[in-house]
Amino acid sequence: MKRVLLVDDHTLFRQVLAIILEERTDLKENVQAGSLGEARRVSADLGSRVDLAVVDFDLPDGDATELIEHLRKVGIPVMAFTADPSLELGGRALRAGAGEVLTLASSGEQIIDTAERLVGG
Question: Which domains does the chain have, with CATH numbers?
């Protein structure tokens, strides 16, 4: 059973994403965080025992650059999300180490395909 870390300030989005990933991928266990601060605490507790991190790049307590860099250093693949379809935020997330950047307009199939590709299955 694979584990996913979901970081987004919108609880409903995290919950729906968890259901989609659980039903359609091997990511059956999820850990959720609603802010950068909470994500830092959770990721410190989990160490590298996460198979994928799905991170909203622009959170109320800052952008996720440092979090993405940390996750990549410990070997966790990152799928970043942004509500901003501009290339600027997506480029920053990719430079930080995100394996893929999707927008909130992405389809469920795009999310599933990206998650499976990033976890290698």
Answer: 2-119 (3.40.50.2300)
